[in-house]
Design goal:
Distance between the termini of chain A: 40 Å
Order of helices and strands of chain A: HEHEEEEEH
Shape of chain B: globular
Oligomer: heterodimer
Radius of gyration of chain A: 20 Å
Number of helices of chain A: 3
Low-confidence stretches of chain B: none
Shape of chain A: elongated
Strand content of chain A: 25-35%
Number of helices of chain B: 8
Radius of gyration of chain B: 18 Å
Largest sheet of chain A: 3 strands, mixed
Strand order of the largest sheet of chain A: 2-1-6
Structural class of chain B: alpha/beta
Distance between the termini of chain B: 43 Å
Number of domains of chain B: 1
CATH class of chain B: Alpha Beta
Strand order of the largest sheet of chain B: 4-3-5-2-6-7-8
């Protein structure tokens, strides 16, 4: 279950990005994960939800783009998506192919919105009551 | 709502530790191989035969992982090489931190080869980089020929497939050539060695593979970077 650690790293990345954008809050973070990165998207979503619950990040959505690895044929130069680990070139049938991607684990985007200055409006006395 | 592009890699703690380990192994010129298979495919037996065949002065060490017991380490210690058991306590794979912890008091500069025997599991170990130079997958002839297609990720990531228990081939409906073809469907460059640890067939070829792999590892180290 290293998904928990990865979820935590994503939150750190979001926190850092928000520091550069004062007055905003994050609504959703987009990440791209290659099938070969060894990260299970469901386990990551679950870990992300568990980690954000009852924190400043509660409700922060995660959008996981789970991408198949891509290959390139050394014979005909055709680029293709590797499905079910089949590395045969779909164009010319050659097995002389190389993998060019598949273990991505990277940020894509952050959806942000203006922070509603709740804390300032409501004030501490009301919140405690 | 405003969508802003965000760049950079998400830190994967295991990948970070594994990269550190890989750097250390390269600095100390230790070839590290990670043995992965289903439970009962013969990892420990292959290791016993390997240690038995090595000259006593060989600079070799073994880390062996299991959920419980020191049984494997006890089996392997008899050959006089440094062996440590990693008891995962329920975790279904080894991770880079466990390796880091268990090699902490070993002087890596006194090693040429470190063999890691992963927990018997064809699934999860494939997701955890241990800083090794090569993953090796074992498939025994009592399993299905289609295992490379059912569990493709580990066959995709392994350099070598060791087909074990080949002495049983006359008694089981296992077509070695079909199994090899399946492995090469997911990994065309897959190297294959057929071994019978009981009869001894193929063990020489396996030992040669290890030695050759070590030479490739060392010559890659001496290449100028970039």
């Amino acid at each position: 279950m290293h998904e928990m650690g990865i979820a935590n790293s994503i939150l750190s990345g979001v926190a850092k990005e928000l520091q550069r954008r004062p007055g905003t809050r994050a609504a959703k973070v987009g990440v791209r994960i290659g099938e070969l990165a060894g990260v299970d998207p469901d386990a990551l979503s679950f870990a992300f939800e568990a980690l954000t619950l009852d924190t400043q990040f509660a409700g922060l959505g995660i959008d996981i783009e789970y991408v198949a690895p891509r290959g390139r044929c050394r014979e005909c130069n055709h680029e293709f998506e590797i499905r079910n680990y089949e590395v045969l070139c779909p164009d010319c049938g050659s097995l002389n192919t190389e993998r060019i991607s598949g273990d991505e684990l990277e940020f894509k985007y952050l959806e942000i919105e203006e922070e509603v200055a709740q804390a300032k409006c409501i004030g501490p006395s009301l919140r405690s009551g | 709502m405003n969508r802003v592009p965000m760049e950079g890699k998400v830190l994967n703690e295991n990948a970070r530790v594994a990269a550190e380990l890989r750097e250390r192994f390269c600095e100390r010129r230790v070839l590290v191989v990670n043995l992965i298979s289903s439970p009962g495919s013969g990892k420990t037996t292959l290791l016993e035969k390997t240690l038995e065949a090595l000259p006593p002065a060989s600079r070799v060490a073994v880390l062996t992982g299991d959920l419980q017991t020191e049984n494997d380490a006890n089996r392997l210690k008899r050959y006089g090489f440094p062996v440590k058991q990693i008891v995962t306590g329920g975790t279904c794979h080894l991770d880079a931190r466990m390796i880091e912890k268990h090699i902490a008091d070993w002087d890596l500069s006194r090693l040429d080869l470190l063999i890691v025997e992963n927990v018997g599991n064809l699934v999860c170990p494939s997701s955890y980089d241990l800083g090794e130079a090569a993953k090796i997958v074992l498939l025994s002839v009592t399993e299905g020929e289609d295992k490379p297609l059912k569990y493709p990720s580990i066959f995709f990531k392994s350099e070598l497939m060791v087909l074990t228990k080949t002495d049983l081939l006359p008694y089981v409906p296992f077509d070695a050539e079909v199994a090899i073809a399946n492995a090469r469907r997911v990994h065309p460059e897959m190297e294959v060695v057929k071994v019978s640890c009981l009869g001894g067939a193929g063990l020489g070829e396996w030992m040669n593979w290890l030695e050759r792999r070590r030479q490739t590892f060392l010559s890659a180290l001496s290449q100028p970077v970039g």
